[in-house]
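SEQUENCE-TO-STRUCTURE ENTRY
===========================

Backbone structure tokens: a row of integers, each naming the local backbone shape at its residue.

Task: work out the structure tokens from the sequence, keeping to the layout shown below.
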Amino acid sequence: MDIVYEKKTDKSLNEAIESLKENLKENSFGVLWELNFKDKLGEKGLEFKDHFVVLEVCNPKQAKEVLEKNIHIGYVLPCKMVVRTEDNRTYIGMTNPEKLIGLFNEYDLNEVAKKVGESLKKSIEDSI
């Protein structure tokens, strides 16, 4: 998997976000924060063509495990999920936890990163 994993869905932006939130919860992840760049830039008087919604998500048990091993991994936490539109299409995606954790050369955390990635990928697949 590359640094970005993304799937197209026939759902609207809001339907995709709600579906993703439900599926994340089923996979033991909570949404800590949500930002729609289109709306935020609009507040600043800047026009942005499409929606780009970032969800920062976390599985507390797995976050604790990686932070106890290397506190600097907190710089790439929480995990980022994106629901975005482009040309009237909706996409759901994520950054690859294995690639991000791999930047820290903590090879014993690869299995945790793999499990996180699989759970997030399942959440996307179940949301499309």
Remarks:
- The CA atoms of residues 64 and 71 lie 9 Å apart.
- The first strand starts at residue 4 and ends at 9.
- Residues 4-127 form a domain with the TATA-Binding Protein fold (CATH 3.30.310.70).
